[in-house]
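Render this sequence as a predicted structure.
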Amino acid sequence: MSIANRNLSTHFTLHEMLTSQTAVRFDFTEQFDPPRNVVQNLERLCQEVLEPLRLVVNTPIQVNSGYRCFRVNQMIGGSPKSQHMVGQAADIVVVSSDVETLFQTIRAVGLPFDQLIQEFDRWVHVSFRDRPRREVLRATKTASGRTLYTPVLTSPLLA
């Protein structure tokens, strides 16, 4: 790692938010030395969303993908406008729970997320930014392999 590790919140570190097997495999060293604004965004994501969620679920949260440098995002086929590239998003799972339960928990507890996406029944994408949209989606693959994002209607109880 190029940048010194530190806690971004009680349970989340900078290095876990920068981890990328793709970057290691292809020697994309910029993945591990993000700009200062990216680190600040990661810290806000951890403090505003991930840490409060960790306290609610009372079990470790595994970050599968946090920050992605441009080349990593391009290599994995991420959106050209991905919030991962600016440190505002993380793909997460909780080992002791299924993805749908995690998704519904985040919806129910009123965290200030920008986007919440249950992706392919494999992980939950959650992002944070100022003036959050509170967009809730489900990502699935069509028969042709295209990703389809379907809005999830928000119950008045979850608004």
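Summary. The radius of gyration is 15 Å. The chain has one domain: 14-151.
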